[in-house]
């Protein structure tokens, strides 16, 4: 076991998935495949939307934001996890660990904000269709994106200051495959209640407030959709919202599980907790472009046309 006796360690040791060390080599293959699919899928979404003028609409601008965030989240965690699984490269420097924490938690906050913005977009599109382009102008979308960014940075800055001021004097082994806030904070000596309370407060503010506003948006949407007389319009409305609801469930469900397990899940097997925490940052970014590609006719047709042209 590695020990040190100074306030800031030079390195941390990431264990990977504790309890499944003998399977690390084989676990890395599906991780690598999912990572490649996530990068390819999100890059395809970005290229398709950029190259197709008919997709230059608020809904697709938010989808571009989501794609960029997903690529950052996966690239922040998966390459290091693969180096642990395949090459036994367990060390990560202290400052790199802090950077990883900032990107993981900060961009998770950004993703939650973008999902809320997408719910607002669907509300305006279905409940106020005649005013859609006048409400969600390019300047409004830019302001929403800036507000989401400022919220993420604003919430993460105090957390990073708290982590930077912690004193470490025991083990430097992190029982995780990436640097997670509480997993690192628990290694500190003495008083970490402030970190715990602040992390808990941020999670409650972000997750529960965003979920509440998303639910309100869909309740209002549902009231309008139920009143539609045309079956075709009803199916179209459910179709445009269905993909967004799937993505929301994929993001928030494992996020809440991981958050709960890190603080109060002592009875949960650690390998199960770490595996779900890893997949939480990998599976949604992989499935988001697939779901939108399958559910959104304009993107599906443009992707098919793109690949058909390349095939020809």
UniProtKB/TrEMBL annotation:
It is found in: Cell membrane; Membrane. Belongs to the G-protein coupled receptor 1 family. InterPro entries: GPCR_Rhodpsn, GPCR_Rhodpsn_7TM, Olfact_rcpt, OR51/52/56-like. It comes from the Eukaryota. SUPFAM superfamilies: Family A G protein-coupled receptor-like (SSF81321). One of its GO terms (cellular component) is plasma membrane. Residues 41-292 form the G-protein coupled receptors family 1 profile domain. Pfam families: 7tm_4. It comes from Alligator mississippiensis (American alligator). It is a multi-pass membrane protein. One of its GO terms (molecular function) is olfactory receptor activity. Keywords: Cell membrane, G-protein coupled receptor, Membrane, Olfaction, Receptor, Sensory transduction, Transducer, Transmembrane, Transmembrane helix. Odorant receptor. The chain crosses the membrane at residues 25-48, 60-78, 98-120, 132-153, 197-226, 238-260, 272-292. Its main location: membrane. PANTHER family: OLFACTORY RECEPTOR, OLFACTORY RECEPTOR 56B1-RELATED. This is Olfactory receptor.
